Amino acid sequence: MEQYLSLYKIFYTVANTGNISQAAKQLYNSQPAISKSISRLEENLNVKLFSRNSRGVSLTAEGRILYEHVKTAFEALETGEEQIRRMHALDMGNLHIGASNTLCKFVLLPYLKHFIEQYPHIKILISCLSSNQTLELLESGKIDVGLIARPNTLRSLDFYPLDTIQDIFVASPAYLSNLGLSSDEMHCGRMLFEKATLMLLDKKNMTRQYIDDYLTSNHLQTNHTIETTSMELLIEFAKIGLGVGCVIKKFVEDELASGTLVEIPLDIPIHRREIGFAYVKKRHIETAVQHFIDFYKTSKEN
Question: The pTM is what?
Fold first, then answer.
């Protein structure tokens, strides 16, 4: 069918004008060439598509059937072309972002607020995912941009750092008091983790994997653990005295300032990590995605 697409375009134009001469003018072609193309299409379909009359040509019964299908096809193509023109004229497009609930709330939303003000016509879809899930969807092309903690290997990704984050252990003053540890014992991870209930993200989470590496490399054992998929829940659990939670310091600044939570300073600190936007390296980047990349790079520079 692909080889006859130009013939269908000629057929469509002749049917709309009802005149081979007019169709030839619209298509910047000669009348003999238009007539020859119609004859070729008729031979291919083994039907008569037009009948001649004093005013020009008119569709036969078979021609009318074909015309309805061809009309639908060309109108769909015209609609697609118009949407593309509008997209470029109005900076429209689609942008699919992946981020964890926590990074979405504390980091992504401020960027989105100003980005939407600048590009109100871009349609934005956000998927709340763990960093590992975000990486998988990025590499499979199912999302455009991911807000993640920097992975050990970037592979096919471009990574643009925004900030660094510090993982810390926190608990309520009442919970720490109930543990009955001395000040020296409290700062010693070995004593603290053996006695306390440690609250962590689930094992599929990149943050959890980072903390597990920290515990293993420093030979720190845990006896009682609670797992959850949400850092917001870890923070709330710590506030009500359920255990010692591993959280990102930036996201509990208010609780630390008010004394609702207390940071537990350890003898062996946890190294800071980078967070930023990642996207797959490729030659052609959709307009909406490029706008977002340019926006966050410019925002950080300013």
Answer: 0.64
